[in-house]
Predict the 3D structure of the following.
Amino acid sequence: MPKPLSLPFDPIARAEELWQARWGPAPAMSAITSIMRAHQILLAEVDAVVRPYGLTFARYEALVLLTFSKAGELPMSKIGERLMVHPTSVTNTVDRLVRSGLVIKRPNPNDGRGTLAAITEEGRAVCDAATRDLMAMEFGLSTYDAEECREIFAMLRPLRVAAQDFKED
């Protein structure tokens, strides 16, 4: 898909001006619009990097999570919890990875109704290769230095805490 031509102006800044003229100041509107646009840009960039491996960023995240687990496997429910996604999304993601030969599913011996997802050797190799490529392009954030990336993380953390993503220390 060809990249659209750049506009001769910042449409979010223009929207902010028009918004303010009509309804008054709302810096949160331009902030959320910028965050959503940044999400679109970054997702397109990282998906383009992982696509040659037969992955989406969501599938890549699942592989990374399995790689980080001690035994290379986790209950499906735990994957959903850690990735903060709906169980149906986990099932779809893992099933795609199974069809690609990157993950296997097996009954959970500790939970008669549960299923474990386990990364395969091929899954580990694909995860490592995709990770090298993502790190080389700095996950799409090469515009920022390391300190600015830490600042972005710190700035967004209170929002995640307020959404109860996790309990703050």
Strands lie at 73-75, 103-107, 115-119. The chain has three domains: 8-53, 54-136, 138-169.
